Amino acid sequence: MIKKAIIPAAGFGTRFLPATKAQPKEMLPIIDTPTIQYVVQEAVDSGIEDILIISGKGKRSIEDHFDRNFELETRLAEKEDEMLHELRRLSDMANIHFVRQKELNGLGDAIYYARHHVGNEPFAVLLGDTIMDSVIPVTQQLMDTFETYRCSVIAVETVPTDKVNRYGIVGGKELSDSIMQLETLVEKPALGQAPSNLAIAGRYILTPEIFRMIEQTPKGKGGEIQLTDAMLLLLSRENVYSHRIEGKRHDIGNKLDFLKTTVEFALKRKEFEKPFLAFLKEVIQQYEQ
Ligand code: G1P
């Protein structure tokens, strides 16, 4: 059973400046809920009890978000505001721990900070700026595949050929519609050089051997220690599988994706569904005139 999850959330969020100059991109809200809360919820819904968030400079508000705020709770209790229960639920969601990545040396380096906390057991990784919308939580989907193969499992999704250079791309032998036994992984390949259109989607189950591999991984794309490169090294020791996710990935660090996610999530909320849809129709009409 996988009980621990790592959420890397140390990056600068340069794609979302200036909003991320003084606040973490992981705290950007979709309606009223910070992105990272959706990510923590996915881990909890998958049966994870222990979460380590890799934070960094300027990320303190993430810690505050999952901590108790007694002053606020007292105020809400006096007013009998039902948000009180939501705030208490939030601070009791899981055992959440934090460690700070001292320098931004890449995703592989961020994961390496978790080695003492994780110990010698397989663990989940959920990127803190990526929300999944699915019936079965995506981390749970990976765990189910892990139970079959007892090896590392990487979530993937199909991307258009002209976008492969934005992702880690995997290649290998298809075992079923959704599972592939990997033969290669490349971080952000040049167009025309990708082994497939299957992109790494920000969720992983990794065996602890990955920490030894990260130690041996030289700097890669962007001069950073890439997790994708460490997983390629892992392939020479253990089998690694990819799992095509059932669900939709939302990359919140990307402005257009952020806007689309806000609209889609708003339309799913009972209180907004009708008035917001009416508003959208009005806007579209204006644009079509
Ligand atoms: C990271 C990973 C990449 C993966 C992507 C998914 O890249 O290195 O393999 O496909 O997340 O969002 P980043 O987006 O941090 O550059």
From TrEMBL:
Start and end residues of each Nucleotidyl transferase domain: 4-262
Annotated signal peptide: none
GO term, biological process aspect, one: UDP-alpha-D-glucose metabolic process
Keyword line: Nucleotidyltransferase, Transferase
GO molecular function, one term: UTP:glucose-1-phosphate uridylyltransferase activity
Enzyme class, spelled out: transferase
CDD domains (UniProt xref): UGPase_prokaryotic
Enzyme nomenclature, EC number: 2.7.7.9
Domain of life: Bacteria
SUPFAM superfamilies per record: Nucleotide-diphospho-sugar transferases (SSF53448)
Catalytic activity: alpha-D-glucose 1-phosphate + UTP + H(+) = UDP-alpha-D-glucose + diphosphate
Family (UniProt): Belongs to the UDPGP type 2 family.
Protein name: UTP--glucose-1-phosphate uridylyltransferase
Protein source organism: Siphonobacter curvatus
Lineage per the UniProt record: Bacteria, Pseudomonadati, Bacteroidota, Cytophagia, Cytophagales
Gene name tied to this protein: galU
